[in-house]
Design goal:
The chain is built from 1 helix and 12 strands. It is mostly beta strands. The strands form 3 sheets. Strands 1, 4, 6, 7, 8, 9, 11 and 12 form an 8-stranded antiparallel sheet that branches. The chain has a two-stranded antiparallel ribbon with strand order 2-3. It is elongated and about 75 Å long. The termini are far apart. The relative contact order is 0.21. Bound molecules: zinc ion (ZN). Zinc ion (ZN) binds near residues 41, 55, 57, 59 and 146. Zinc ion binds near residues 57, 59 and 146.
Amino acid sequence: MKKYILFFIFYLFLFSIYINNNISYIDDNFIYPTTYTQISSYYGNRILYGNYNFHNGIDFLAPEGSEILATNSGYVEYASFLENGYGNTIIISHNSNLKSLYCHTSENYIVKVGDFVNKGDIIGFVGPKYLSNGNLNGNTTGPHLHFSIFKDNTTIDPFSILKK
Ligand SMILES: [Zn+2]
């Protein structure tokens, strides 16, 4: 009898590992991160200031102060200034290999690292070109929302998963 109990406990242990590795809060419908659907720059190569440059996300023409929505559910992984042209940035981790990034946001973060957000929740606001300390809010020529999707830490075209 004791043998069966131990066997059962071992089975539960294996099952819990299986569940933990397959946990996912997302569904297949990734939504637009803003209600402003006009796009000023697509994913891919573009010419910026006369040079070829790879744009790793989509730019939505959204005015300063407009709401930024979580494209899908997940945990906030980053909510702070980020170097390399991003400026104020929010990153949401959706599962073990998918993340979404929203940048040039305002300084009044309404989410913090570790928060769980549901798809469609307001996570922040489009920020100004210049921050209160006078620095540029990343590589930006004016208020807009830059949105990237990372799959296994490499960007993919967000339109490959965004719900049309
Ligand atoms: Zn951009």
